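User: Predict the complex with adenosine-5'-triphosphate.
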Amino acid sequence: MMNYASGPPRPAAEPPDGTPAIRAGNLTVVRGPRTVLRGLDFTVPRGQITGLLGPSGCGKSTLMRAIVGTQAKVTGTLDVLGHPAGHPTLRTRVGYVTQAPSVYDDLTVRQNLDYFAAVLDPGRTAAERRHDHVTRAIADVDLTTHADSLAGNLSGGQRSRASLAVALLGTPELLVLDEPTVGLDPVLRRDLWHLFHDIAASRGATLLVSSHVMDEAERCHRLLLMREGEILADDTPEALRTRTGSDTVETAFLHLVDEATAAGRRKETSR
Ligand SMILES: Nc1ncnc2c1ncn2[C@@H]1O[C@H](COP(=O)(O)OP(=O)(O)OP(=O)(O)O)[C@@H](O)[C@H]1O
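Assistant: Here is the predicted structure with adenosine-5'-triphosphate placed in the model:
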């Protein structure tokens, strides 16, 4: 078991070419009448866990949807693993777990994975490879003993892990996980975070994990702190705490919010 008391484990090294997993430039998204993301500039390094944190409604899911290529009205630049977001070549290289469970309740865990594996890697000649990928993904999320249980009979945490197993099919280099621990008890949350660190360490995968629970920030290698469609900070948890003279990332976040509000007020009054 990993111990996070002294911070998360050291991240895997960057690939030799140094290309980040995600690079955004002046990224803007409009949804309905609202500009939900406002000219974001950031990079997400490879082989690390980056936490996307911010209050409900700040734009985390919208940003994730843009990254996986399912969001309309995206302008600016957004490159994922060296290709424009949504490029067909990224289909098997990016895994995405939405907030809503993405498994069918009336199928077993294995049947769910068999189905998604057949979509990703179709054809009779790929049958053996698909079987291996499914067996490995089930083992990775520690559901081997529940492989033949109906997804509808799993607990909330087990269902989250089944959704994660689907995203692990095809050995993605980037995993985008939208609030994967929401509604889980502290033990299940801790176990899932251990799993994320195992995936990053053993596969060298990049994980982008959203949460609005600030204590989860301490488990990430890097953080993107969001507020009202903007990036408030992009740094390591330790650097954020040090920079703001705070004991926790939560206090650091509040400090940065106050700073941004004060800067906004100064701008208003100088007009
Ligand atoms: N279909 C839509 N049409 C118009 N506005 C939308 C739509 N979906 C979301 N929004 C708005 O976009 C903003 C960002 O939503 P988003 O779901 O990205 O936030 P979030 O940070 O993921 O929130 P949460 O943590 O509650 O999931 C919100 O203000 C929301 O009201």
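Helices lie at 60-68, 109-120, 127-140, 156-168, 186-203, 237-244, 249-269.
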